[in-house]
## 1
Amino acid sequence: MLQSDIDLEIAAEHAAELAGKGLTFMGVDIFDATGFWMLLLRFAFNMLVCWTIIQFFYYKKSRRKDYYFTFMLFSVTIFLLLFLLQSIPMQIGFALGLFAIFGMIRYRTETVQIREMTYLFVIIGVSVVNGLSMDIPHVSVIVANLLFLIVVWTLESNRFFKHISAKIILYEKIELIKPDRYNELITDLKQRTGLDITKIEVGHIDFLRDTAFLKVYYKDSTDEINTIDNITRFP
């Protein structure tokens, strides 16, 4: 074959294709520079967003290190799972399956409260978005994550919503639970507890012991979530 018979354009395409292929082992690339850096950048971005939500919104009020640990590991696991398996043709079904599975989770060791379950769902959602958005423009992904942060910040901010705590009290002055003595009941409990009580609900009444269970709602100046606030009945 004469040198003049060689198509320079075709030769250049083959050369570029060969140059773009790295070392392989059993048909799989050993190292892909583009995919490697994309993994690191997406992972760092996802961790930054999830850490911001957990550190500045959840942990600031709850102070629960156990859930801090859980949320961060959920974020890492979900992101890597979806990012590395995104080439498999089951992206949408797999993502929806994760939402369904974790939406039904109930840890048997203790009851997971609504707030923790909500944050768990948010962390899963952020990680799914960042793990499956390879073909979506970077600006759209950044805006989606910013929307997560803005909505969580808005709902957690005291500028828009005031947090009201609640406690269960076993009360012995049963004569004050009558509706016409409601104001006296609030005054008595304010003096005895020192809490800024806004509302009282009367629950179980035991006339044999002259006691009643009251659910007391009050404004907490510390703005922290007290785990005992979640107790709704006496064990």
## 2
Amino acid sequence: MDYDKWFEDRLNELKNEGNYRVFADLERYKGNFPIARNHRNGKASDVTVWCSNDYLGMGQHPKVLTAMHNALEECGAGSGGTRNISGTNHYHVLLEDALADLHGKESALLFTSGYVSNWTSLSTLGARLPNCVILSDSLNHASMIEGIRHSRAQKKLWNHNDVADLERKLAECDKDVPKIVAFESVYSMDGDIAPISDICDVAEKYGAMTYLDEVHAVGLYGKTGGGISERDGVANRITLIEGTLGKAYGVLGGYITGSRSLCDFIRSFASGFIFTTALPPAAAAGALASVEHLKNSEIERSTQKKQVNLLRRKLDVVGIPHLENPSHIVPVMIKDPVKCKKISDWLLEGFGIYVQPINYPTVPKGTERLRITPSPVHTDADIEYLVNSIAKLWSQCALARVVA
């Protein structure tokens, strides 16, 4: 078999479908987000980034950078090992304490990314709890899906955010087997939000654990940034809250929070935790500074909400269709993979605007979009320029507009 030819044929299929991914080679400017230098074909030019998950610009915040610099000078570069073998740095312990406090839980456990924390925790729980059934929202993230698959536990899919369907699926389960209801708070592609309280009602009725992924909500919602579960006053009803330090907190890492025994169980049995090198101390220190800042500062969250609302209003004025949702994510719907990629390329090359096309398999075919994430450091002028640029290309691609 000619392996390389087989690989190339599959890649060409992706390219012909408009689903081949091309990485933008970006160089972020310290203190000047959302501007970045884009390297392309041996040349470099400045672009405005509109699709970053650094939702609040905390990756550039002076408190975060100072904390990381100080930790680097104090501790050096790497952690030096796994958490079990010399790799637990004092900054890890302080950060875990801060995260447990953020969610009102007894304990927290750090991982190297949000993907790893989901994959590891769900696979460990599903594999170790005897005859466990995991009830997974149909739009859960790939990290959750892979963790459930790896656990080899019985899986039941319930219709997205459909509490009645969840109850039907729970009612089918043996009342004596362990059950985990796994779902997200903010779904990152459509920007819709789970009815957490109603889900808790049903899970409690059937004796199920609740596993909540808050990665697109921590730092952004709630009085102290604890996510949708804090905003809605239901964090105490969730068995396990999972989050990330690489999005609104602007650094790196994932985590879980829950009871002391739950976190200790995963710490003791999860291969994805036991056998991987711990986060660098500087990353933990920076994340700690970010978490503590956003526990006390509302300015980033309130400014971001204002800019999200302004962008939506401007899009409405020029008839550009975007999915309505109550979150910070603005999906501009193109519904054609080739045109989605072309508009993204033209925005980058002709207008200095970087927004990545979102195509299959990240979203279903026919729902291709530009996923825009306004931040508190995008100005009103930035928004005006973005909307006008999209509107020009919308006409060139003969895409339908929304009539008010």
## 3
Amino acid sequence: MTKDGRSIRKKWTLAGLMVFVGLILVFGYRYVLNSDTSEMQALTYQTEKIIRGDLETVVSSTGAIAAVGTVEIGTQVSGTIHKVFVDYNDKVKKGQVLAVLDLALFESTVNEAQAGVMESEARLKQAELECVRNKPLVVSGNLSAQEWLSLETDKSLAEAGLLSARASLKKAKTNLENARIRSPIDGTVITRDIDEGQTVAASYSTPTLFVIAEDLSRVEIEANVDESDIGQVRVNQDVRFTVQAYPDETFKGKVSQIRMKPTTLSNVVTYTVVVDAGNDQGYLLPGMTATVDFIVAKASKALLVPAGALRFKPMDLEKNKESGNMEAVVKKKGGNEHAPRIYTLNSSNEPVRLNVRTGISDGSLTVIEEDDTITEGMVVITGVKTEKAKAKTNLFSKLAPPRPGKGHSGPRGMR
């Protein structure tokens, strides 16, 4: 090949190389300008504010409403119901006749007993006259002592017979009176379990004919409290309860009695707590189911912090660090390492630990004491979360990606 040919070839080779490099530079520049995105994990805080308000802790239970001073009325005699004079919800007075049994049999028994008394009185009178008539004969010796003893015995037997007849008459009159079933108290009829023509029998298990509530302006609730909560319930404790019939109404009462006898059902031990409550409006009816809250403690206008803020720990940040996030700066303020603490954010958006004194809690909010460093409206950390964020990458960063934790600044306040 001639010298001129080799020179031309080198020129073309050099021109091609320059074109190739130019294309690389053009496309590389466009790649940088239009760099793609890749995902990275950005660490953010879940925060809430400290608020001021009222808080109370309660023990919840359920129970049944019952009337105060209820009396079950049965019958002391057997017979057939002749007439019923009252019905449900009727107001009755003490001594008022509620129902009457058929009196024919009882009246005949009284008449028979009266006849028995009259007969016994006649026999006694005859025996007394015999004694009076024969006494002079005993004095004169014309009547033996044995015959006189017989006369005195007849007189004593007549006296005993009269006492027995009078007792039978009294019993018959009592049964006649008991055939009229009366109210023992003033109150309201809440149960009537008999009808006219029904036969009732007096026995050891006498049926209940009526139930009368003495005062429906007051009711009581028998609530079943779990053994784990009974220690927080005390006599005269304030109680709040609701019933399904009036879901928008809240009723109040007080604990009047804590019964020591336990009840075990399915290995669950409960104790009966009696609650007294007013019922002036008459909304509460016997038998209603009540949802009861025993107010254990309450605080008014106190600083309230979310319970999650007290559960938050720096290890939550460390876990995010291990997953690729940057280490958070946690500064401490307060000397007791084991004291309850919350974390707030300083002006550099860095978590700062504050030791606090806690009060009562309802599980969602907790009372904390106010001081110079803790005020209403302060933002506290309740947790951390990771969000996927888009970050620009160029050709060089893609060819040589940085090591985790190096070469990038994390979210504000993180380094």
## 4
Amino acid sequence: MLASMRPPVPAAPVPATAARLAGVASSPVREILALTERPEVISFAGGLPAPELFDTEGVRAAYDSVLAEGAEQALQYSTTEGSIELRTAIAARLTARGLATGAEDLLITTGSQQALTLVTTALIEPGDVVLVEDPCYLAALQTFGFAGARVVAVPTDDDGIIPEALEEIAAREPVKLLYLVPTFQNPTGRTLPLARRTAVAEAAARHGFWLVEDDPYGELRYDGDRVPWIASARIAADRTVLLGSFSKIMAPGMRLGYLRAPAGLRRPCVIAKQAADLHTSTVDQAAAARYLRDNDLDAHVAMMCGAYKQRRDALLAGLAAALPVGSDWNRPEGGMFVWVSLPEGHDATELLKSAVAHEVAYVPGAPFFVGTPDPGALRLSFTTHAPDEIREGLHRLARALA
């Protein structure tokens, strides 16, 4: 009764969110995906694996096995470094592809995006210079933005990062880290040639900065020969971090990635992960390890690559009729993306409104740039839809851009 007679206490405002959020934009890709969730929309926007190609039965059997044979362990806490069985299997796959690796060289992460966050947490202080390709993977820009890094764009051409430009920037800037996706890059689909990879490794050694080599798409090759990882270059072995993922070749919903790093950086990443989530899901790691033991992942990836190659070819075959005269695009040897440049006077961001109205979507290229954006650039993903749907999507895109 007495409490009800008291005058109301004025409520003070809650503290503001952290200042580091101010310079970090939301991902336009995620926002576009939210706008195009209607099933009638044919979306070239998201870099999503085709769900009908998941090995659902094999993955289900792996979960069933680990829960039937060792539920007590699979559902328990585990070590931060990750399952020894899974790390051993990953190490064997990397070694077979020419990069000698032991289980002790690896840290299992909750997707390779977390691996990048852990490396950034362990290395980057506010104001540190981070170099990126221009254009660059959007979520990497978000990660570096949260860390307060000063992000500097390195110019690129049709073969990726330009070594001479990298050398010039590294000579005048106190570079801490260079981040790049050398194989089937996001957003452009480009692959950095071997000579340029060597030049990048030499620049890192000469100027004393870290290299973060992100490789989520490398196994999705449809043409040409595999190019060795930068991490395999001896001159940069002590300063190169390789990020990998099962999202594109097994299932993204399992959220399993890894980083391979020199011991001096791997241990700080372990500590950063302890603060972030203690460890990656025990049961998901156990299921992935069992899947790799009981199934031929390489055969599954080969099946996926056969399907994705047909989808890529269907997209490429229809672009000339779908895009305005004077447009340019590349022909990636793998991965998920084709990079398009519309002719001068076309703004891909403005034209997206018309595209969505015609029930088709893409990602404008401008948000991927750190330097001066190309307003006519756009990214098309070809993996999510079958060839017939891709052809229909291109007909809609042609009407939208007319």
